[in-house]
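Students often ask why we bother predicting the structure of a whole assembly rather than each chain alone. The short answer is interfaces. A chain on its own may look different once its partners are present, and contacts between molecules only exist in the joint model. In this exercise we take four input lines together and write out one structure for the complete complex. Read the inputs first and try to guess which parts will touch.
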Amino acid sequence: MLGSYRIRTDLAVEAREHFKEENVEVRGVEVNESYDEEKDIRTTVVKITTENGAKAMGRPQGSYITIEAPNLSVPDEDYHREVSREIARHLRQLIDLETEKSILVVGLGNQAITADSLGPHVVENLHMTRHIIREYGLKGMGEEKMHRTSGIVPGVMAQTGMETSEIVEGVVSVTKPDVVIAIDALAARSTRRLNRTIQITDTGINPGSGVGNHRIGLTQDNLQVKVIGIGVPTVVDAATIVHDSMAHLLDALDEGEQKEFLEEMISPHLHSMFVTPKDVDETVKYLSFTISEGLNMAFAQV
Amino acid sequence: MLGSYRIRTDLAVEAREHFKEENVEVRGVEVNESYDEEKDIRTTVVKITTENGAKAMGRPQGSYITIEAPNLSVPDEDYHREVSREIARHLRQLIDLETEKSILVVGLGNQAITADSLGPHVVENLHMTRHIIREYGLKGMGEEKMHRTSGIVPGVMAQTGMETSEIVEGVVSVTKPDVVIAIDALAARSTRRLNRTIQITDTGINPGSGVGNHRIGLTQDNLQVKVIGIGVPTVVDAATIVHDSMAHLLDALDEGEQKEFLEEMISPHLHSMFVTPKDVDETVKYLSFTISEGLNMAFAQV
Amino acid sequence: MLGSYRIRTDLAVEAREHFKEENVEVRGVEVNESYDEEKDIRTTVVKITTENGAKAMGRPQGSYITIEAPNLSVPDEDYHREVSREIARHLRQLIDLETEKSILVVGLGNQAITADSLGPHVVENLHMTRHIIREYGLKGMGEEKMHRTSGIVPGVMAQTGMETSEIVEGVVSVTKPDVVIAIDALAARSTRRLNRTIQITDTGINPGSGVGNHRIGLTQDNLQVKVIGIGVPTVVDAATIVHDSMAHLLDALDEGEQKEFLEEMISPHLHSMFVTPKDVDETVKYLSFTISEGLNMAFAQV
Amino acid sequence: MLGSYRIRTDLAVEAREHFKEENVEVRGVEVNESYDEEKDIRTTVVKITTENGAKAMGRPQGSYITIEAPNLSVPDEDYHREVSREIARHLRQLIDLETEKSILVVGLGNQAITADSLGPHVVENLHMTRHIIREYGLKGMGEEKMHRTSGIVPGVMAQTGMETSEIVEGVVSVTKPDVVIAIDALAARSTRRLNRTIQITDTGINPGSGVGNHRIGLTQDNLQVKVIGIGVPTVVDAATIVHDSMAHLLDALDEGEQKEFLEEMISPHLHSMFVTPKDVDETVKYLSFTISEGLNMAFAQV
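Now the answer. The structure tokens for the assembled complex follow.
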């Protein structure tokens, strides 16, 4: 239903729910859920395996891991450490630690807007090792095995005059990392998912993802290197909020009436606005710390 | 209509529109509008003169000046200077420059949330003179006449453990300014007003104003000194967006049905969320500069 | 020697060294040193017990605890936790936890200058509880016993037009804490002490302390409440560097020649300059975290 | 004299003074001074024209323009506008505005250290136009002629794990600007030059320049594109301060004694420290604004 109206979500798990509600099984899409009751962490893996599945889901083939952790926005250090471990565990599965030894972390988003500053904050908290290992070898780090990590905060187009992908492409071509990990603040469809959901995907960052709406995306296709995307939904599009609140009302109308209604009612203004929780400053602070700890854990030792 | 559902707005001009739409004249409320076509600046002065008017409008007796300037979010220096002059002109009318010689500017709001950081940014750009005049006299400033300006950014309760009003009350009791000017980011009802409207009022900051929802407010009553509030709407409550989008639909229902509908539909989640434009970083930057220039102009010379 | 030339240090332990070098015992000054070899933390307690001692040492009567921890500028979490514990232990001795239940932490210094931003960073990392306990009682915190903590970053005079002491005095008079803890970046005499020394004193912050040179200070005398000062030296005065480097040379001259020499050589420019390490950003980050953890530990439970 | 001891300065005008003091004329070095009395701006152009001159001066062949403006650290808007115009004028001579139409501005330095944050602040205040002209053509800017400007803040090695030159090289190879302008905070030899001197050079940024000591530099040689460097001295090396203060004393010694003396006296600690004025926050704010205005003027119209 409501298919004629485009709802924006960056979460595969939400795109999938759409079909679930309507009891439709989509070919080319596999879903596995697990729930750790003790830790209260739910993990859903959505695998899009065919071109048909990709079309139905509106995103590229690949794996989409979603970690849902209700207490992510609460300052409980032990809980956050569990989530960091979970992130590290998934990263170690997506990356071949024996052969992929150098990692470039890209902190996407606009540092000057709290809801969009997750990526820059993650990079700020990372331990960079590439320059030390290059200069002094692994002994410089006091380790026998360790990844070479580097990181960049490219800024947004209004601040740089450049596409983010141009900057990252340039840095990749010179520093030749084995893997790029791009961190971004995402848009969810449901306010319930804000600041408590982490999505990890081996498809990178695709056009239209993120609070800031990257036009080009960061993918293996345009960077010529494996790209992993890690995102947390911190906003919902303002138009989506209105749309969803009205869903029940609209059910009573036929499709033509619905369309007319929505076009009339959802002000074009709303598409340049986002909805975010009033405590977005604290949740972005906790979440960025949890993710950077997850990365630090994943690459500190093999 | 819709009266049973509380819509939040910090703008008197919006509270007044409500009655205008319904062609109701409210006793105890005077409205004067003027429009400068050349500068494209519209100024509306709402005066609430009786207790009855105050009740109808849901805010205290006093003057509410609203400057609407459509190009406020565009980086045009000349235009911003005009708006700064307009702010200075109104301040000079609200303050008796011959007898009220010392001004404390309070930058309300949360620096860590872009949409709530207007007040802190304004204080950051102000020229403080109180400490220089106290130490060296007016000659220290190279002027014969000049106000003593001071400023503080008190932070928000989650960061300080204190009510903002406690901090301001303390500073006022020791430094004894003649006038307090409190700057705050406001919530509007309509997204069309965001970042292009400035409200100046001699009633101070009242409970429930601002993005951060101050509980106690800053008024002559609790500070024992004249308080002028300057605010710019930078957000709309998420619940308001949904409500307003549905207004037409609801018109068809009777009041009981409406209420049931709204309670069911507007998720309680939404009341802890706000809507803000995607370019909130730039508009807050321009607006805070324009307001601090207005203050600098008003107090630089008598 | 060199007594005719005033060397500035905010560390009691350095003022005391001066006499030690010359093998002079000062009456009214007691010194106790202890060294924890395993943790590599040296603690020196200087007690000034008489007016004579105060005059000789150039600072008020009271206790000055110095914690020297060489690895403070290294990012070793376990080591920092030990130092936080040490800070908490000393605070619990200086404060009567049974009767002094509410604490106001003041983050002194200029946020916009890295070397002077220690105090603001400490307050930023503190858990504030006063507003929660006031609203919901101790149950609101899930604890039976807990201190009420609040905090403020008053800014510096050039930014506020007010003496820091005016702001703090006002806040104290309204919120009536039992104890004020003021955090500040200090000036040391020796570059070797920078960023590895923490001084805790029950004499508060005295005029001339700190990078920013507070004129009035924060003491029990002017605030009417117990004041504990916590400081870390992050800078050395530029004039001091020159003076100390020349000390040997000067030894060969008589006192008159020395004075003439110094006046001629140490450019007045230098007194408006400070010396600070190139990695001041990282050390201030680690140190502020370690101190705020120490405060969180001290007041979380009784 | 003192030639055996390496004094660090990033200013050609200071390197040149050294010879002037000793009344030595250096072949391959041309100097032109002019002084605008009304504006109180002194401009010195040092041209190094031969390999011999380059060796004597310890820096590459090319032009070094120094603008000395004593009131640069004072908040006088009109004065700063004059200096911005002067910067624009020189840039228009160094760049062929008819053929070199796209400019990449690189803001070097560490944002987290006030004295090193000049470059990042300049980029923050620039009007970027490249993305708009690419998307909408010059009409998008409402202009017939205009440069395409883009900008990046690459961060420092400890934060990114990469050489700054690697990042810039990558961005240049993808976005292909005609000219790179690199902005950096410099080290001067004399505290008198701090925050009142601007150096513009067509030799780029050379190894050892800047507060943060870039190892590789940004030059036409390694970037394959014209590189203009703009720098302002904001610090003096701590060792230099000591050295210069002792210069008179040392005059009395022979060269061997001098060397012994200096090695003994200038503590190795000092080489990891810098000296900077106590009002570095305000001067960096004014200076970065003045430089970005100069760039905005130079490229707004041809």
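Check your guess against this: Chain C has twelve helices and nine strands.
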